[in-house]
Amino acid sequence: MSKSRLPSKLRTKITEQFRSCCAFCQTQTRISGIRLTVDHIVPESLGGTNIESNLCLACWDCNLHKGVQVTAIDAITLQPVRLFHPQQQLWSHHFKWSEDKLLILPITATGRVTIDALQLNRAELTVARSNWLVTGLHPPNHREES
């Protein structure tokens, strides 16, 4: 995705809407220093458009792991399940934090496939979360608007 393809006003609106936090792994720019990108929830290659309802903020790793996927096979049911859609679904309906706040746990099949497909508990994130937890800045408040 080229940065010039989205109007800067729309890019700013999405950044504000998601509070500079990855819609998937919940990594916050303010404590991570990780640059976030505007992600097409349904990729342009699959007919997704540059409208607000198809855009979210994602860290580079989540964006790379997601790629052009919109569904993934659920390891339990072996059926295709749609990945989490940050503009249509609430994070807290599909995910929760482990008791120690280091891992994202699934609540639903959507949560399961998204955690697996995007590797939301990759090793570097769990190490970072343990450090952020000490600062009191983790876990972040979730975007609870649909």
Written overview of the protein:
This protein is α+β, with helices and mostly antiparallel strands and 146 residues long. The protein has one domain. 33% of the residues lie in helices and 15% in strands. The strands form three sheets. Strands 1-2 form a two-stranded antiparallel ribbon. A two-stranded antiparallel ribbon has the order 3-4. A two-stranded antiparallel ribbon has the order 5-6. The protein is globular and about 40 Å long.
* Biggest sheet details: 2 strands, antiparallel
Mean pLDDT: 90
Q: β content, as a range?
A: 15-25%
Total number of helical segments?
Answer: 6
Q: How would you summarize what this structure contains?
A:
The protein is an alpha+beta fold.
Give the tags:
single chain; alpha+beta; globular; 146 residues; 6 helices; two-stranded antiparallel sheet
Task: Annotate the secondary structure layout.
Elements (H helix, E strand, L loop, with lengths): L7 H10 L11 H4 L3 E5 L14 E5 H7 L4 E3 L6 E3 L8 H4 E3 L6 E3 L2 H10 L4 H13 L11
Antiparallel strand pairs: 1-2, 3-4, 5-6
